[in-house]
Amino acid sequence: MNIPLFDAHCDTIYRIKETGQNLRKNKLHIDLERGGRFSPYAQVFAVFTRPWPEKIDIHNMDYSHDWGAQVLIPMGAELLDLLLAEFDTNSAILAHCLSAQDAKTAAEQGKIAAFIAIEGAELIGCDIDMLHEAFDKGVRLINLCWNYDNALCGAANSGSRKGLTEQGRAYVEQMQSMGIAVDLSHASEETFWDVAAIAKRPIIAGHSNSKAVCNNVRNLSDEQILEIIRLKGAVGLNLCPDFLTAGGAAKFDDILRHIEHFLELGAERALCLGGDLDGIDHLPLGFNGIESYAELFEDLLKRNYPEMLLRDIFYNNFLNVLERVL
After folding, report:
1. What are the DSSP E strand ranges found in 32-159?
2. Which strand (E) or helix (H) includes residue 9?
């Protein structure tokens, strides 16, 4: 059986840079050889970097003039160039996609469809001119923030309860007018609702789970999930054990609990996969890397989930949302 896969978030390029490995074949969570076993296969590769120096106060910084200009922005640019170079090296089997139609064309050609995201707008200075530069280089999705507040908005992990700033409002409006997906994973709940109030295109939370199932600050409330459904957006199931279960050692059954809750809320056309692979240190028990998505698909089939529903969750839903956004 051909199993499709569209994963909405991975941090593999950061690990490639960190370990000196390559995208074609490596010992990380994702490589193109393993991903290429799915048919079709599409992947959002996030440009992301860490850690954050403990001695620097990164809360409410002006990233365009402080530490961001000195460190974060150059690091983001270096990682984006590295990712583009990996795309070029593997162009025989991979297509850098700028639209949903590009992904469909890649699938028809038997190629991997690759999209680029920025995880944390501070990596491009929270600056609209740099937003245009990123767009010109092929970036099509942006997380407004990572784990800390920035000039655009508050972060879920910061505890500040800060929402969208005026600068952030202009930034979101510009993103949506350009056709860049606004990803609200990592954003505070206040930021989420501020964005939802002005959204003219669907919004996504590319790697976030259900707070009702696992009460983690990075997860989404039922009200947020329902709003994403209302706006015809997407939410990607995150494989981080801390976001799956309070116990910290997650199993396939914990993934299933989140899937069932999303479906109970009516997310048949909104739920997708956003594993956060290579961005998390541990995986659920029995999950080794991208190849284990096939086992999850087969496991869900055995539990009498309709095959068409699984194909929607594993591939079609996110592709359809990008068709409405990009």
Report:
1. 41-47, 94-96, 112-119, 139-143
2. strand 5-10
pLDDT bracket for residue 119 (50, 70, 90): very high
Render the burial of 234-245: b for 16+ CB within 10 Å, e for the rest: bbbbbbbbbbbb
CB of 266 closer than 8 Å to CB of 222: no
Cα–Cα distance measured from residue 186 to residue 239, given in angstroms and rounded to the nearest whole number: 15
Model pLDDT, residue 273 = 98
Phi-psi region of 321 (alpha: psi -120 to 50; beta: other; left: phi over 0): alpha
How confident is residue 13, by pLDDT bands cut at 50, 70 and 90? Answer: very high
Give residue 54's pLDDT band: very low, low, confident or very high (50, 70, 90). very low
Measured distance CA(117)–CA(44) in Å, rounded:
7
Helical spans, DSSP H, in 207-313: 222-230, 241-244, 252-264, 293-302, 307-311
